[in-house]
Amino acid sequence: MLTRLEERFLPFFVEERYLLPKPNHVDNNVFGSVPLELYLQGKAKPYLKLGQYYADTQWEVPAEVTEQAKAYAEKGYSWQTRIWIDDMFMITAVQTQAYRATGNVKYINRAASQMALYLDKIQLKNGLFHHSPDVPFSWGRGNG
Hints:
The chain is mainly α. The chain has one domain. It has helices at 2-9, 26-29, 33-42, 45-57, 67-74, 85-102, 105-122, 140-143; strands at 130-132, 135-138. α3 (33-42) runs antiparallel to α4 (45-57). It is globular, with a radius of gyration of 16 Å. The mean pLDDT is 94.
């Protein structure tokens, strides 16, 4: 399976580069988890570089973002923070993979502080999570 994944992934470096997701949203940046895992499996540098790009751009605030995004970034969180249960995975997955691949504690510290924020904001006393502060329902997929 690893060989098949790598064969499918390699075109992203050349002829299918245009298909790489823009690093402008949590749903796109989580893509970086895949090349980081490929790096961990075989230590090929292009995978590491691509994965780190997606991990780092979660903290590099673009010029045109909302005031809320800027406010989260100023507090040390990802500018992609929305306080949605989805983001507990989307942000922390790529940051944790970047830590595993590099050993650089900035990545695991990012994941930990981001997770703590979400725990404080949307976790209920029973351990479940609301989908978001303004959607007070324990969403099955997110809690799964």
